[in-house]
Amino acid sequence: MSMWLVLTVQVIWPGLCLAMQHYPTTWGHYDICKSQVYTDEGLTWDYMACQPEATDMTKYLKVTLDPPNITCGDPPETYCALENPYMCNNECDAATEELAHPPELMFDFEGRNPTTFWQSSSWRKYPKPLVVNITLSWNKTIELTDDIVITFESGRPEQMVLEKSLDYGRTWQPYQFYATDCLDAFTMEPKTVQELSQFTLLDIICTEEYSRGYVWKYDKTVRFEIKDRFALFAGPRLHNMASLYGQLDTTKNLRDFFTITDLRIRLLRPATGATMVDESNLSRYFYAISDIKVHGRCKCNLHANSCVFEKEKLSCECEHNTTGPDCGRCKRNYQGRAWSAGSYLPIPKGTANICVPNNISPVIRQNVSSLGVANRNQDCNCNPFGSESDHCNGTGFCKCKAGATGVKCHECLPGYLWDNGCKSRVCDNELLRCQNGGVCVNNVRCQCPPAFSGLLCEKPRCESEAGGCDPDSGQTPLSHSAFLLLLTSACVLLLTRL
Ligand SMILES: [Ca+2]
Predict the structure, then answer these.
(1) Cα angle vertex 408, ends 443, 397, to 5°?
(2) From ligand 1's centre to the CA of 97, what distance in Å?
(3) Cα(185)–Cα(170) distance, rounded to whole angstroms?
(4) Rounded to the nearest whole angstrom, what is the distance from the C-alpha of residue 173 to the centroid of ligand 1?
(5) DSSP string spanning 408-433?
(6) pLDDT tens-digit profile of 212-240?
(7) Is the peptide bond before 449 cis (omega within 30 degrees of 0)?
(8) Which of 159, 197, 218, 313 might form a disulfide with 268, Cβ 3.0–4.6 angstroms?
(9) Ligand 1 centroid vs 99 CA: distance in angstroms?
(10) DSSP secondary-structure letter at 387?
């Protein structure tokens, strides 16, 4: 038996080594991303989607204003407090650092007192609208993961639109309209995010939630509610993210909704705090923003774990032989099965569609031809156990059975074990642990202590009720009274020795 095994290994080994030359040894590790985490059960693997961590994205943006000279202070001017039109001693002077309010102050570290803020020049040209576009560009596709929060130092605008672009600013779509009176400003019925449902999540609404109360100091923020929208799928405390990810996986529109390359804040009418604009005191009216929060992550199509900022540019560190700013295509000389993004879901669905070298099939084909075996069906050498058939498809790929992976379906996804094909693992020392002291044997069975049975030794052999032994156990039931007798004898024995 052992001789046969040695012989078999000797026969297989050269072939295996030859095969390994074609594939990176870490092939299997590319299929998914995982990290070790501590839980109540000890050290386990946590499988996750292949994506960079979410972070503060304002560190990586470029801001542009339109009109470009709309920032206050050139020439210097004084402006009045909105809540007190007779207090007009605030100065803005672009040439003096302490009195300047450049756009960068919307993204600096906040927490200082007084706050730092960008400010526009005042509404001197009234009744011509005071319109300012603030464009935030990443030059990279990013996915939003938290609410966009804009904190105003002035009153919040009476009319404003938040817009997004997915094509680096060529086209724009509204994200949300904001007004003190939605019907008047945009002929839209006012709505709140709470009125949205799973079916209307992609609706663009006008909200009056963030335009009132210009003097109340806590009413300074304007929000675009990402988390409330996530909650429509993931539950109020976002406890069921799998449900959200499931939706994101299957619904491109939903994915795209949270994806942007640019944001544009269109300030259309400043806070006036009154029904009539006071034409004699237009220095009261301006925009000022102290902080903008944008939280998100690089979009890498689930083919990268990290995203780097180099030479003023974000780019995904693509894995799976993919390339491009968003890992959106295969590297040169590689090809994927019909290209698709990876998956947010955990295994087995969370398997990214890896790209494989183009030249594998031709190399093998030449060898086969030189041997005079021109059977096209065998060109791909699909593993007969791991693949659905030994024929490969039109693009030279094998169709793998559940659990199998690799170009020839010759390897197993995590959670599967090679045994004439990929069989679901019974046990391992990571996620599938034998219970009640059972020992995992070769990942295919748990060797259970006498009192337990079941695939993972999870079942007590004898239940407490009379005659309740597991009929499969084939063991004589150990009755309650017999057990007591045994225990008593043990105690007697122990006492005698003492
Ligand atoms: Ca600031």
Answers:
(1) 140
(2) 14
(3) 25
(4) 27
(5) TS-EE-TTEEESSSEEE-S--SSSSP
(6) 765 556 688 999 999 999 999 888 888 88
(7) no
(8) 159
(9) 14
(10) B
Rg (CA), the chain: 33
pLDDT of res. 37: 67
63 CA to centre of ligand 1 in angstroms: 14
Relative to beta strand 173-179, strand 206-207 is parallel
Q: How far is the CA of 292 from the centre of ligand 1 (A)?
A: 8
Dist. CA 291 → ligand 1 center (Å) = 5
What is the 4 CA–ligand 1 centroid distance (Å)? 75
Query: What own/partner pairs with CB < 8 Å and gap ≥ 24 does 411-415 have?
Result: 411/27, 411/28, 411/386, 412/28, 412/386, 413/28, 413/31, 413/32, 413/347, 413/348, 413/351, 414/28, 414/31, 414/32, 414/34, 414/45, 414/47, 414/347, 415/347, 415/348
Q: Which residues contact 393 (CB under 8 A, 6 or more apart)?
A: 399
CA–CA separation, 386 and 383 (whole Å):
5
* CA 198 to ligand 1 centroid distance, Å: 35
- What's the pLDDT score for residue 475? 40
Instruction: Give the list of residues 6+ apart from residue 475 with CB closer than 8 angstroms, or none.
Output: 450, 461, 469
pTM of the complete model: 0.64
Cα separation, 180 vs 45, in Å, equals 51
